[in-house]
Design brief:
The strands form six sheets. The protein has a six-stranded mixed beta sheet with strand order 3-2-1-6-13-12, covered by helices on one side. The chain contains twelve helices and 19 strands. By secondary structure, the chain is an alpha+beta fold. The longest helix has 18 residues. A hairpin with a 3-residue loop joins strand 14 and strand 15.
């Protein structure tokens, strides 16, 4: 038996599953809302509340299945928390050392929400140093103004100066459960700081963007299936059981796609949430000189094909469109220019062009107001 903590942009849940040969049975043991909060400096996630709700769900999971073997965590992408180790205890212990051999790190503020308007200035700061076309050749990411590298560029320099660890949301929860700071690679691929060629942190890119201090802040990378560690003793006592936390495809889209029962060489997947994804699985990235204009997007080992704004409204221009996108993120308004994706992040969508005639549906399904939805 295993447990999963699944965090979406508007809600979360804890699931207990039984996995075996030809067997997959799941039971949802907890559901909870994920409501962002507005503070004086912008829009944030209530990460402590989410962690508390996840703990309560895991407590229920252990009560129903005391023999849980492992726990996995996935969430939306790009957002992170900054942490700092303690100053030691004066008795020769390393800074932040716990009695269980792990290191205590304090969270430096509440993680920002990707819809916060600060990302617009991050886009400007990054593209002043490196255009998107050059970034794309390094990280394979479509321009999205909330990708983590833009958020780091908009971060308070004073906060980056004192931070010694940066963890994406599922990695942050795993750290609180185990005391081990790691970065799972499928979610790390959404930061824009991972080289697509070898799935390693791109230190020269950090230097070029003026973010060299992150070299020591980004944690070691791990792949799905890696054992992160057992629950800390205090956490295990609180939950009523002990289990290993194991890395899964911690970006929720990665876990969703890998679960699709398909033959990758002969199938396309469609993932529909608060926005839609259509793509294929490939063994290796496929370089192509027109890749940016075709709006292809890599996540982990997968190449994602996105709806092309260039095909209908002209190519997306990061410098021109970054501020426009930022203006909509606080309210989450969608006026045809900003859509949403499965992990809750806004995506580019061309405005509805009403001058184009609607394609008729087959006669037996046609109605006065029925149209094909692209």
């Amino acid at each position: 038996m295993v447990a999963a903590v699944d965090l979406g942009a508007t809600s979360g849940r804890v699931i207990v599953g039984r996995v075996g040969p030809d067997v997959l049975e799941t039971t949802t043991v907890a559901r909870f809302a994920n409501d962002p909060i507005v503070l004086g400096d912008g829009l944030h996630w209530n990460i402590v509340g989410l962690y508390g709700a996840a703990l309560e769900g895991l407590r229920t999971a252990f009560a129903s299945e005391p023999g849980l073997a492992s726990i996995g965590i996935d969430s939306w992408a790009v957002d992170y928390g900054l942490l700092r180790s303690g100053d030691g205890d004066g008795d020769g212990e390393p800074a932040g050392a716990r009695g269980d051999g792990t290191t205590e790190r304090a969270l430096l503020g509440t993680p920002f929400h990707y819809r916060d308007e600060r990302t617009a200035r991050g886009v400007a700061a990054v593209h002043e140093r490196m255009p998107h076309a050059e970034l794309f050749e390094r990280n394979g990411l479509q321009f999205l103004p909330f990708n983590t590298l833009y958020q780091f560029a908009a971060e308070s320099p004073a906060l980056l100066e004192i931070a010694d660890t940066a963890l994406l949301i599922p990695d942050l929860l795993a750290f609180w459960l185990t005391g081990q700071a790691r970065a799972e690679v499928t979610n790390a691929s959404t930061t824009g700081l991972l080289r697509w060629s070898d799935h390693a942190w791109d230190d020269p890119l950090l230097d070029a963007l003026g973010l060299a201090g992150l070299r020591t802040v980004l944690p070691p990378l791990i792949t799905p299936g890696t054992r992160i560690g057992p629950l800390r003793p205090a956490v295990a006592a609180s939950l009523g059981g002990q289990a290993d936390v194991v890395a899964v495809g911690s970006h929720d889209t990665a876990s969703a796609v890998v679960a699709v029962p398909m033959q990758p060489e002969a199938a396309v997947y469609i993932s529909c949430g608060t926005w839609g994804l259509v793509g294929v699985e490939v063994e290796h990235p496929v370089p192509h000189p027109r890749r940016p204009r075709r709006e292809l997007h890599k996540r982990g080992r997968r190449r994602r094909a996105r709806p092309s704004a260039a095909q209908r409204e002209g190519p997306l221009d990061p410098e021109r469109d970054g501020a426009r996108l930022g203006a909509h993120r606080r309210t989450g308004r969608t006026d045809g220019a900003v859509g949403c994706r499965g992990d809750g992040a806004p995506g580019i969508r061309p405005p509805l062009r009403r001058e184009r005639p609607a394609l008729p549906l087959p006669r037996r399904h046609a109605g006065p107001d029925r149209r094909l939805v692209r």
